[in-house]
Each structure stands twice: as structure tokens, then as C-alpha cells.
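Interim report, section 4.2 (structural modelling).
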Amino acid sequence: MGKSSSIIRRDKKVMSTSYDRDYPFAFKKGAGCYMWDTEGKKYLDFAAGIAVLGSGHSNPSIVSAVKKQLRYGTHCAFPDFYSELPVAFSETLLRQMPSPLNKGRVFLSNSGTESVEAALKLAKWKTRRRYVIAFRHCFHGRTMGSLSMTNSKPIQRKGFAPFLPVKHVPFPYAYQMKMEPEECGDHCLNKLEKTMKQLDGNCAALFMEPIQGEGGYIVPPKSFVKGVRKLCNSFDVLLCDDEVQSGCWRTGKFLAVENFGVTPDIVSLAKAVGGGLPLGATIAKPGIMEWPKGSHSNTFGGNLLACAAGRASLDFMKKRRLGENAVRRGKEMTKRLDEMKEKYEIIGDVRGIGLMIGVEIVKSKRSRAPDAEARDSILRKASENGLVLLGAGKSVIRICPPLIIAREQAEKGLDILENAIKVINNGRS
Ligand SMILES: Cc1ncc(COP(=O)(O)O)c(C=O)c1O
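Predicted structure of the assembly:
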């Protein structure tokens, strides 16, 4: 029995049965845009540890910053004592934020769900209102507050009620709603306005992923995101922007919402912000995060290794202008994927900004019916040929490689993906 099979067998015996693996890849090591499994096989990585490794695997600047900090200590209980590193990390982070968030305050945690929980609690504390609004297909995490909003797959909510008071409204998934993007955006804005009227004076915040991640890499039209901001202003509702997956230059801008010309009130970050170590950050505009001592805190927030890695990663991404690389590579990849869409009946839609690209696999272009089985077969086939990918939504292939990816690596990965799509497409007809 190979090493991978033996690890998988042991995993199946002791690990929670809730983990959801698409195919049997067992990680041994990573470097840049490559990973190796426990059998020594090399793979190109189009998943970046679920959009975490913007600066790539084992980035030397991050490794050296973590090693340096290890000499001084790993943890100082930052919420209870003072330390420079978490402050320096937060200052670096604030410098990347659009105005006026760059003059705001930061709360540090360890994951995406915690950075959303902090935003949710903060919005409730600030407004003393009961309800929040979230979108269909959204994913904000799996702890009870964020899960109350999460709506991307039924299995994520089934059996966990009761939830916090949340109203869900449609997000402009123009492709599946079979509408033109602007028309779809207007339709969703009407529904949102109705809900805001119903909840008038009783709604603390609206939570939005500017590009939905887990739900299927769904890109709304610009007019919709602008309309959301306007409605939040009219109804005095805080706009909480979940950038856990889309943030840190993945779409070119530091925050994906900047592509739509909108500034939120509260931002949640995690994943790429920690450079591969667990780190979450919630950032609020001035005048919001002024809650009293003891009202919100934790144990590991501001962990020294995570802050060392996070600061090194932010510096690296900024210095190397990885946002620009994301836009360049994203355009080339989307062009090639659009060409593939013309060739293969099972590719229904290609969408994205920068290196956050979704390819929707369907039963036929006419029906647009999601084909989860075909998508899963493509993921498996690509992995057999040395490309690591993840799924999203019902039948979307998500493409979110490290932002350092070179043109040749992107092309090589797309060759493998095209080959897998061709096999599944032709095998079906
Ligand atoms: C947009 C978004 N918000 C929140 C989360 C939750 O993050 P975590 O899994 O670190 O709790 C995720 C995770 O995928 C996410 O994509």
C-alpha cells in the first residue's frame, strides 16, 4: 500500500466524518506554485490552499520572518498584554485599506469565521438592532453567528437550527437566473429594498461577499454593488464586506469591493492575510470599533507567528506588485477559458476578476443545468494529471492559484484542465 493510501486509511478512522475531500491528494510539501504528494508526485496548484497562499507555498520571506520570531516566542496573549508585532502588522494592513478604513481600527483573530463573527457582533453592538441581511449562495463561515448567514449549500445548515435572525435576499447570479447582468442586479436590488423597508429601524448590517466564493465564484454587476451601498446609506444599515476569500490583491485591488467603486463600513479578512498561518482581521471605519473593554476578545488573536507571517506576506505581495500579476494572468487565463467554452458543450460560463475565476460545468449550454458529476470527474482527472483544483457552488471549478503564478505555469495548468474537460466532454456525447 502506498504512503498516501495508508494516510487516508488512518484519516478515515480518526478524523471527523464532516471533512469533504474531492479526491485523494495527500500533501507532503509545497514550494511556490507547486505541491508534492506523499508518493513524491509533483502538482501545479490552482487552489492555493483555498485562496490562502497568495505569496505561494514556503515563501522564503515568510519562512524567514517566522523563523526569526520563533527565537523570541510564539504567543504572548496579545489581548491581555501589549506587543509590537501585532500592532505593526495592523498598521501595515491599514495602509492597504481604502480611505476612510485606513484610519480605522483592527480586531485580530484566527480564521475567517471569527473575523465575520467579530463584524457581526460589532454591527449589533453599534446599532443595538436585531436583524442582519445576507445573500443567497453566500458563505461567511460555520460558527453559529456566521452560519446563520451562510447559505451556499443545504448540508452546511441542516441540523444546526435555531439560527440568529437573518433575512436572505437573492444575489445576482445572472447566469443561473437566466437574465442579463444589469437586469438581474436591478431585480435583486428591488428585493433588497423591500426587505430593508420591512426591517426598517431593526436591521444592523448587510453582509456581502463582493464576489461570492464558496457559492460558485459569482460576480455581480457594478451597478448592483453600488446600489447596495446606496440602500445601506438610505436605511442606515452597516455594509459588512466579507473579503476572506477575495481580499489581499486576488482581484488586483487589495479589496475586491474596490473594483466596484464602493467603500464598506466593516471588512473581514483571513486566508491570504496570514501568509499561510491562521490569522483573521476585522477592520472598521473610524467611530465604529469603539466598544468597551472586555466586550469582545479572544486568546490567540495577535498570535506572534501568525502576525510575523502576515506582515511578511503583505510586504512581499505589495513589493512584488502581485495585484498587477493577478490582473495580467487573470486576463490571459480568462481569454483561454473563453475559447475553451466555445469548444466544449459542458462549459456553460466563465467568469471572474483577476485570479478568482469560476468555470461552470453544465449538462448543456441550452439548459444550463449544473452537472456536479461531470465537474467532479474533471477535478479527479486533472489531479491524476498533476493539477490541483477545487470545486465551488453546485458545479463550478474554482481557479485561485497563488498570485505569484507565471504565464508558463498558468498555461501548463490550463493545458491539463483542458485535457480533463475534453475527456469528460467527449465521453459524454
Ligand atoms: C468569504 C468567506 N468568508 C468566511 C469564510 C470562513 O473562513 P474560515 O474557514 O477560515 O472560518 C470563508 C471560507 O472559505 C469564505 O470564503
